[in-house]
TrEMBL record, chain A:
Keywords: ATP-binding, DNA damage, DNA recombination, DNA repair, DNA-binding, Nucleotide-binding, Nucleus. It is found in: Nucleus. Coiled coil: none annotated. The keyword Transferase does not apply. This is DNA repair (Rad51) family protein.
UniProtKB/TrEMBL annotation, chain B:
CDD domains: Rad51C (cd19492). The keyword Nucleotide-binding applies. Belongs to the RecA family. RAD51 subfamily. This is DNA repair protein RAD51 homolog 3. Keywords: ATP-binding, DNA damage, DNA recombination, DNA repair, DNA-binding, Nucleotide-binding, Nucleus. The keyword rRNA processing does not apply. It comes from Rhynchospora pubera. One of its GO terms (cellular component) is Rad51C-XRCC3 complex. It is found in: Nucleus. Involved in the homologous recombination repair (HRR) pathway of double-stranded DNA breaks arising during DNA replication or induced by DNA-damaging agents. Signal peptide: none annotated. GO terms for biological process: meiotic DNA recombinase assembly; reciprocal meiotic recombination. Its main location: nucleus.
């Protein structure tokens, strides 16, 4: 909408000639300038400028919908990808929502990729089994995708489906994995995806993980400023999610939480929080900063403490702050408690990593061939 | 007043100056055709110039009931007007109390906070509460929700509307005839239909929708609340020139203030946070810079106070700075002391 051409907006011809003569061709060019600047640039009357800006704004403005129409549309299209974890689905009012950015953040080895593998399978499943019956694009930036593991998860969760001849191959054939090695490759894949998504074939987009992009950015020696190319990719991802109405799942890394990170507002004064110093060794925070934290719609934190692992719904417009203990089994992630534990206060945003064995040790047990390949 | 202050295009202005017309009085008794000949411009343009001149001079000397300045009102008239104003309840009694009744109409209120604190929840709550019928203490108006981030979830709006209606019926159990007719209007679907939702995907569209609002509000005269969630998102990502950004934002906030006064509605802007280096350390502050922080009439910051969510009034011309705790429940924003039967505390 921002790139709509002014000469197609129904302005009187003399006026649109003046605009194009001064190289103001799109709505974006015209609306980025204050009216006085436009008047000085185009050398026309202020009333004419105002009328032109009003006409351009009307043409550029997207149409409105009532809340009721929105709800009805959501009801019709389903609107959610069920995770097959009942407690989490209830907390998220149906599952991973369409058209929004869902972030999975947690320390390494905790189970984010396992979750993504299962989601990829679920989206590929036929609708009669509760899936979305569509293709899945899996952008793997850290080479963590394991198709063998995914088939194993499938076998464990839906044994009756996967025993059927050829279905496993069909499912795996719907999942498209791409492994970009630089930001420009990533951006190119996103651009190409834009077209495929519009043709309604793709039903899920997974980026595992997004934090790797930033480390590529840093490797090239570009200081990540607000205008770094990664920011552009992130906002592009969000806009893809929006207009194609597919769920977009993104995984993020963590970094250690220094005491400087406990920011306060000026009116809160300075606080000496001695209790925090004990927690700071195992206290982590999501990478990519506060601007990214604002940009995601739903944030699921994977953390470990007291000998268990938890999925916490940290940021969501429709869910209460709850934590679900989980384990990773051969059939993927299973919740130990479907009710969830209510988490009060700002604890919901904390990421802890204490008292559990590294995940990579457990994966050794699953090196047997899945049955369909024997 | 000089020619240089007239709202006319630069080329005509330079022609006037080069021909020696430097003050308004020199143009006061000239006919349009003479001026057109003098400046070698078209007749219509000369007419425009003279009209601009006469507009400026007449507005200076117009007599009004209040004598001194046209369009001004006395403080006493404003006081009586303000006392008749209804406010939009936020759902939390403590917060309404420190706000002086709720969100004020004819003012622009900015609400900011860290991610996950409840800004969108407050936005949706206000969009529902503005529709509470007048008989039940509300404004009975509709809401415009401008969503730049995609955080508006229709299911959540449904939950909040349901919770609001439930609480109203709880509070006003009367079955008298006056209430019966408005009871019919208390349907969740009506509340949802009263929210006009715009989904904005770039800052250009954001500027466009704010420009377009004047026409929209003239058509839909019952809108009493405009929410922008959030005003920051696109301006942080895609704007390269920060000085230009400040000017554009300034223009936006002026336009919003003008809309709020013209149509007697409340404008609520939700903002994100950023870190700023002051006093030797990094502090949290609302985004978009220092110039923007002057643009809004009121400023509320939502923050964590230990394990509680708190709203702090940082800036307001009419109420003192104060803090109030609030909860985000399954039914929406509520106060700490609300003890309704089925409240599921979050």
């Amino acid at each position: 909408m921002a790139n709509k051409l002014i000469n197609q907006m129904g302005l009187p011809p003399s006026l649109s000639h003046v605009f194009s003569a001064r190289n103001i061709l799109t709505a974006k060019d015209a609306l980025s300038l204050p009216e006085i600047d436009l008047m000085a640039l185009l050398d026309i009357d202020i009333d004419l400028v105002r009328a032109a800006v009003a006409r351009i704004s009307e043409a550029t403005c997207p149409p409105f919908q009532t809340g009721l129409a929105l709800l009805e549309e959501k009801m019709k299209s389903g609107g959610h990808l069920s995770t097959f974890l009942p407690g989490l689905d209830i907390a998220l009012c149906g599952g991973i929502p369409f058209g929004a950015l869902t972030e999975l953040v947690g320390p390494s080895g905790i189970g984010k990729t396992q979750f993504c593998l299962k989601l990829a399978l679920l989206a590929a499943l036929p609708e009669c089994y509760g899936g979305l019956n569509g293709q899945v694009i899996y952008i793997d930036t850290e080479s963590k995708f394991s198709s063998r593991r995914m088939i194993e998860i499938g076998e464990g969760s839906f044994p009756q489906i996967f025993r059927l001849q050829g279905l496993a191959q069909k499912m795996a054939g719907r999942i498209i994995v791409t492994r970009p090695t630089s930001i420009s490759e990533f951006n190119d894949s996103l651009q190409q995806m834009k077209l495929t998504l519009l043709q309604n074939e793709v039903k899920l987009l997974i980026v595992d993980s997004i934090a790797a992009l930033v480390s590529w950015d840093n490797e090239k020696g570009i200081i990540s400023s607000r205008q770094s190319p990664v920011r552009g990719s992130l906002s592009f991802l969000k806009s893809i999610a929006e207009f194609s109405q597919v769920p977009v799942v993104v995984t993020n890394q963590v970094r250690s939480h220094s005491n400087d990170d406990t920011f306060h507002y000026i009116f809160q004064g300075h606080r000496k929080d001695t209790s925090n110093s004990e927690r700071s060794e195992s206290h982590l925070t999501a990478a990519l900063g506060i601007q990214w934290a604002h940009a995601v719609t739903i944030r699921l934190i994977f953390e470990a403490h007291s000998g268990h692992r938890f999925i916490k719904v940290a940021k969501s417009p429709i869910s209460p702050p709850v934590a679900f203990p989980f384990v990773v089994e051969s059939s993927g992630i299973t919740l130990l408690n479907q009710e969830g534990i209510s988490v009060a206060g700002s604890e919901i945003n904390a990421i802890r990593c204490q008292g559990w064995k590294s995940f990579s040790g457990i994966i050794q047990q699953w090196n047997q061939l899945p049955s369909f390949m024997q | 007043m000089e020619i240089s202050n007239l709202p006319i295009s630069p080329s005509i202005r330079s022609k006037l100056l080069s021909k020696g017309y430097t003050s308004l009085s020199s143009l006061s008794s000239i006919s349009p055709s003479f001026l057109a000949q003098e400046l070698s411009v078209k007749l219509e343009e000369a007419v425009e110039v003279l009209r601009a001149v006469s507009d400026t001079t007449t507005s200076k000397s117009a007599h009004t009931p209040n004598g001194i300045i046209p369009g001004a009102v006395t403080a006493w008239d404003m006081l009586s007007e303000e006392q008749m104003q209804r406010h939009i309840s936020t759902g939390c009694e403590d917060l309404d109390a420190i706000l002086g009744g709720g969100i004020h109409c004819k003012e622009v209120t900015e609400v900011g906070g860290v991610p996950g604190i409840g800004k969108t929840q407050l936005g949706i709550q206000l969009a529902v509460n503005v529709q509470i019928p007048v008989e039940y203490g509300g404004l009975g108006g509709k809401a415009v929700y401008i969503d730049t981030e995609g955080s508006f979830m229709a299911e959540r709006a449904y939950q909040i509307a349901e919770g609001c209606i439930y609480d109203i019926l709880d509070k006003f159990p009367s079955n008298s005839r006056e209430f019966l007719s408005c009871k019919e209007r208390l349907q969740v679907n009506n509340f949802l239909a009263g929210i006009f939702y715009f989904r904005i995907c770039s800052y250009t569209e954001q500027i466009a929708v704010i420009n377009y609002l004047e026409n929209f509000l003239t058509e839909h005269g019952d809108v009493k609340l405009v929410i922008i969630d959030s005003v920051t998102f696109h301006f942080r990502q895609d704007f390269d020139d920060l000085a230009q950004r400040t000017r554009v934002l300034g223009g936006l906030s002026l336009r919003l203030m003008k809309l709020s006064k013209m149509f007697n509605l409340a404008v609520v802007l939700l903002n994100q946070v950023t870190t700023k280096f002051t006093d030797g350390s990094f502090q949290l502050t609302l985004a978009l810079g220092d110039s923007w922080s002057h643009s809004c009439t009121n400023r509320i910051i939502l923050h964590w106070n230990g394990n509680e969510r708190c709203a702090y009034i940082e800036k307001s011309p009419s109420v003192p700075s104060a803090s109030a705790p609030y909860l985000v429940t399954g039914k929406g924003i509520r106060g700490i002391n609300s003890n309704f039967k089925r409240a599921r505390i979050m």
